[in-house]
Each structure stands twice: as structure tokens, then as C-alpha cells.
Amino acid sequence: MKKLIALALSASLVAGGVAAEPVTRTTSFDGPKASGTKTAVRDKEAGTFSSDKEVTRKSDGATASTERDRQRTETGVTGSGSRTGFNGKTATYDYERTRTDNGWTATGSGTGPNGGEYSYSGSKTRTGNGFTANRSASRNGKEIYNRADTVTRSHGKVTRDTSITRRQRKR
Per-residue pLDDT for 127 more than 60? Predict the structure, then answer.
């Protein structure tokens, strides 16, 4: 039994030393109103992921597309993407998330399909008995969303304090 376990462990160590190849997955669909294809490529060794999707509307041949890219960095991850709708309008985004000694911080920005400028910031910090987290989003320089969480554990109980502020929607 010990020899079998040792053999399995050594085989996994040898296999782990082989360079991982990028994995590509392509899926297609053909529905009554639209058809499309999505291709995703993940390269674990390089720390990258990309995804491209294109959909064609059958009634008029209009296309919509989505593109996403993610890259692992020494300190976290960066990402970007875009989406073009059937109407030809494009929205884009990019972000960076950085690990810290006791959590993470994140920033991002984007442009909406109608030209609005968006920004995002967030963080999470572990504490001695829980964590604090904050997220904030703005459109054209005005805050539209803010969330603050404080979670503590004490005597086997978890206490969560959450505060959310949202911009009022026009109705």
C-alpha cells in the first residue's frame, strides 16, 4: 500500500513538471432568433484568459460581440473587455486588483454604450476577527453606488454591518 501511494505521488510530481498547454474551448448555438459562437482560451502557466463571443440576429443579420481578457500579475490581476450591441454601440472596461498583506484593493474604469464614463474602486481588509470591505462606483463623476461591510466573529457568532447607498432611479 505504501509503495502504491509513493508511486502515485511521484507520478503526480513528474506530471506537474510538464508545461501546461493553453486550453481552447469553442461552443456554438443556433436558436430560432439568433446564432453564435464563443471561444475561450485559458493558459494557466502564463496566467491568461480570453473570451470572444459573436452573435448574429437572424431577422436582420445584425451582430453583437463581447471580448474579455484577464492577466495574472505578480501582485494580482488585470482585465479588460468590450461589448458591442446589435445597435452598434460599444461599452468598454478595464480593471486592476492588487493583493495586499491583509486583503486586496481594486480600481477600474469604463465607458458606457452612450458615452458615460464609469469608475470603480473597492477593497477588502482582514481584521483580527473578521473583515471590512468597501465598493464604490461613479458615473460621469457622480457616485451611483457605495457599499461598506464590516463582519466580525465573536463567541461563535458572526455579526455583519452593511451600509448601501444607491443613486435614485428615474421612474
Answer: yes
